[in-house]
Design a protein that fits this description.
By secondary structure, this protein is α/β, with parallel strands linked by helices. It is about 30% helix and about 20% strand. The protein has helices at about 5-30, 45-65, 120, 205-215, 225-235, 250-260, 295-305; strands spanning about 35-40, 45, 70, 110-115, 130-135, 140-150, 170-175, 195-200, 220, 240, 265, 290. Helix 1 (about 5-30) runs antiparallel to helix 2 (about 45-65) and helix 5 packs parallel to helix 6. The structure holds adenosine-2'-5'-diphosphate (A2P) and magnesium ion (3 copies). Its cofactor is Mg(2+).
């Protein structure tokens, strides 16, 4: 029997599971007992990272057979009774590109970052925290789901004192379909500026040099690969520059798919495409990443001059 997958049903399940993981992540945060473990120096994992990944993979495996899943955390997946809703996007059926209606699971890889910006999570800077579920097909991202637990439905950030406003936001896209959940959030005073967004916690001399080459009007340093890519997608920044080792395929697959759906570009700092693969030697974005929604070649040329 064919186990072929309809992409809309898979994305629907991913949205449902990411939203449920948001409840898990908020509950762990509010409990005040994060259970921080260091996987390596500068690489924390909490109870929320683990429970979120177990919930998502357990739920996906209950509905889809033969899925190839690459999750950030190395953990057992306990038996799960969760059956995700595969019908959340049924109203979009007519918009689904024909080639995505019946996909061989052998051609798909699901990249899961159960909690992006763990360091910020442990420090209480929770606005950058996201669950990221990306779907690649034959090496390229085709769909992405982002869930932000610590913002409201519009993506507005609020403090811990206003935690009743943390209703959460989902952003999702399938490449080739209209994107509904993304807004242009450029501040009027930033209209003609060049704005770079980059890491707050892994800032290096090399990043400093790259920024000088672009000579921007403004540099925003903040946490999370998903959060920074979303800043570019929503036009709060022009280019996300991270010309260093550190991010992995699960950090970028979901944001990359949403970026592609809005016409943006993600490459390494030399302009080379990223190949989404299960090959352990390719999981790390060794050269780094550059993300734009326009003028990509201009920024790559500046970085390599
Ligand atoms: N040196 C590193 N080791 C592990 N993960 C990293 C490293 N650098 C970046 N990351 C991942 O990329 C994200 C973005 O990095 P930064 O905040 O420095 O821009 C981090 O939140 C982290 O994801 P995660 O929190 O899911 O482990
Ligand atoms: Mg991590
Ligand atoms: Mg991450
Ligand atoms: Mg993570």
């Amino acid at each position: 029997m064919s186990n072929n997958i309809n992409l809309l049903e898979l994305v629907s399940a991913c949205i449902d599971l990411a939203e449920q993981s948001g409840d898990i992540i908020r509950d762990v945060f509010k409990s005040g007992s994060l259970g921080v473990q260091m996987k390596a120096e500068d690489d924390p994992m909490t109870k929320a990272d683990l429970l979120s990944q177990q919930h998502i993979i357990g739920g996906l495996n209950n509905v889809f057979k033969d899925l190839i899943i690459v999750g950030e955390e190395s953990c057992e997946i306990p038996p799960s009774t969760t059956i995700p809703n595969i019908h959340k996007l049924d109203t979009q059926k007519d918009n689904l590109p024909q080639q995505f209606q019946s996909l061989d699971p052998k051609d798909l890889i699901i990249f899961i970052d159960p909690l992006d910006a763990t360091r910020e999570f442990t420090l209480g800077r929770v606005h950058c925290v996201m669950t990221l579920i990306g779907i690649s097909f034959k090496g390229k991202p085709i769909a992405g789901v982002i869930y932000q637990p610590f913002v409201d439905k519009e993506g507005h950030e609020s403090t811990r004192e206003e935690s009743d406003k943390w209703t959460g936001r989902t952003v999702w896209a399938i490449v080739g379909m209209p994107v509904e959940s993304v807004q242009d959030k450029r501040a009027p005073e930033d209209k003609d500026k060049v704005i770079i967004v980059t890491t707050a916690s892994h800032y290096t001399q090399k990043i400093e040099e790259s920024i000088k080459k672009i000579n921007p009007d403004k540099v925003i340093k903040t946490g999370g690969a998903g959060y920074k890519t979303l800043m570019v997608i929503e036009n709060r920044a022009d280019v996300y520059v991270f010309p260093s080792v550190g991010s992995k395929l699960w950090d970028i697959c979901a944001p990359h798919a949403i970026l592609l759906a809005v016409g943006g570009t993600l490459t390494d700092p030399f302009g080379k495409d990223i190949l989404y693969s299960t090959d352990p030697s390719l999981i790390e974005n060794k050269n780094g990443i550059v993300i734009t929604t326009g003028n990509h070649k201009k920024y790559i040329d500046l970085l390599n001059k």
